[in-house]
Amino acid sequence: MKTKIGLLYGGKSAEHKVSMQTALAVIKALNPNKFDVHPIYISEEGQWVKGPKLTGPVENVKELAFTATRELQSTALSPTLFQAPEEKGPFDVIFPLLHGPNGEDGTVQGLLELLNLPYVGNGVLASSAGMDKIIMKNIFAAAGLSQVKYVSFIRSEWEKNKLSIYDQVENDLGYPCFVKPANLGSSVGISKCTNRAELEAAFAEAFQFDRKIIIEEGVTAREIEVGILGNDEPECSVAGEIVPKTEFYDYKAKYEDGDTALVIPADITNEEYSLIKETAIKAFKALDCSGLVRADFFLTKDGKVYINEVNTMPGFTPFSMFPLLWKHSGVDYPELIEKLVKFALERHEEKQKIKYTF
């Protein structure tokens, strides 16, 4: 019996295009002898559309979206979205390849929990906390993990008192600093600031994408990343290093031109790797993660390690670090996806042991 996968992709998010690329890569890697793939596309307006089961290879992102929309099966957000028309029961597992708000932030995960469906990746708490950089960093602080200094603001307080907020950033963090939307990934809306004028522009830019923003101290450091796989006993990949040719690892470098060197394995000492690995697993457990995360770190010249963030649904595009880290750790792309499906089913089975009556 083949495993029936409901593949969720697209999404009402600024990271819609990233999700499309991720879905395309995953579909190409899934073994058709083991899996039946049923696309469930979410438009940028939030419309849910279930397409027919894929019967052959998909060659490009536009065709992938077209495949899911040309034979309209359902546009209502209901349990029927998660079962094939010819099947009586639901899909065996849902694979949410959604990045950013309305997909990676616990919203879709909550829906799938209510429907009691197995799904790949992190649960509601880990997804929502991992999406919100402010909440995530507060949890990391409570867990005793080393981080760079940061401050955060909401849009309404900034609109009322801009000058004092700019003063606070300069006094607490100084320059350079990075301004980011709290609930977004893929480097969307992120700016590096070296003076007041750039700071003002960065605030205006970031507040277009969220009502909360975070500002982080800039440090001179290497950018090191590791991948984590598993549930209660997570494993860590080899470390990789991001060496952007631009000032920082922005959206264009990540997804469009590949104008970035990904060095795997990273040239770091055994002691540095051990500390990064230990911190990454602590972060995974602090957020109660499951399935997968990519953990990002800063490594300074004097060997200090700061955790920057975790990504609870890292991309699977050709330029993405997460699958490359596991490839260099001995897990190729198709096997990686199969492991994620296995972890999803294991976690769902574990949850069925919970007693809901008293």
Query: How many helices in DSSP terms?
Result: 12
Q: Fraction of residues in helices?
A: 25-40%
End-to-end distance, in Å? 37 Å
Q: In CATH terms, what is the fold-level topology of the largest domain? A: D-amino Acid Aminotransferase, Chain A, domain 1
CATH class descriptor name of the largest domain: Alpha Beta
CATH architecture of the largest domain: 2-Layer Sandwich
Query: How many domains would you count in the coordinates?
Result: 3
Strand-residue proportion? 15-25%
Give the helix/strand class. alpha+beta
Fill in the keyword field for this structure.
four-stranded mixed β-sheet; Dna Ligase, domain 1; six-stranded antiparallel β-sheet; alpha+beta; 3 domains; Rossmann fold; about 350 residues; about 20% strand; D-amino Acid Aminotransferase, Chain A, domain 1; single chain
Task: Characterize the structure shown.
β1, α1 (16-29) and β2 (35-42) form a beta-alpha-beta unit. The protein starts with a strand and ends in a 7-residue tail after the last helix. Helices cover 35% and strands 22% of the residues. The chain is α+β, with helices and mostly antiparallel strands and 358 residues long. The strands form three sheets. Strands 9, 10, 11, 12, 13 and 14 form a six-stranded antiparallel beta sheet that branches. The longest helix is centred in the C-terminal third of the chain and has 19 residues, at 333-351. Residues 253-257 have low confidence and may be disordered. It contains twelve helices and 14 strands. The chain has three domains: 3-119, 3-Layer(aba) Sandwich (Rossmann fold), CATH 3.40.50.20; 150-217, ATP-grasp fold, A domain (Dna Ligase, domain 1); 221-350, ATP-grasp fold, B domain (D-amino Acid Aminotransferase, Chain A, domain 1, 2-Layer Sandwich), CATH 3.30.470.20. The radius of gyration is 20 Å and the shape is globular. It has helices at residues 16-29, 61-70, 107-114, 124-131, 133-142, 155-160, 162-172, 196-206, 251-255, 270-286, 321-327, 333-351; strands at residues 3-10, 35-42, 48-50, 93-97, 150-154, 177-181, 191-193, 212-217, 222-230, 235-236, 240-244, 260-263, 291-299, 305-311.
